[in-house]
Design goal:
This protein is mostly helical. The chain has one domain (23-81). 65% of the residues lie in helices and 0% in strands. It contains 2 helices and no strands. The chain has helices at 23-49, 56-81. Helix 1 runs antiparallel to helix 2. The chain is elongated.
Length: 82
Amino acid sequence: MKLKKKSGQRVNISKTKGLALSLSAQSIMLERVKFKIEMKKLLNLLSSYGLSIISLEQISLLNQSLSDVVKRHEDLIAKRRK
């Protein structure tokens, strides 16, 4: 991912704004975070309860809830850009 430079200067990093990433870099980062969270949750469920207990319905509910979380974060990013 490339950082945007402002008028040829170094990118300023602040606690409120974070890194100045392009929109495409932000979307890629969100997708990667979403995938990592899904994998961690599934692995935790599998290790806790075993393969026989997790149903397709539980996996789809987990996927839907994670999609909702990512959507909220995308909305927050969109609000900050305005």
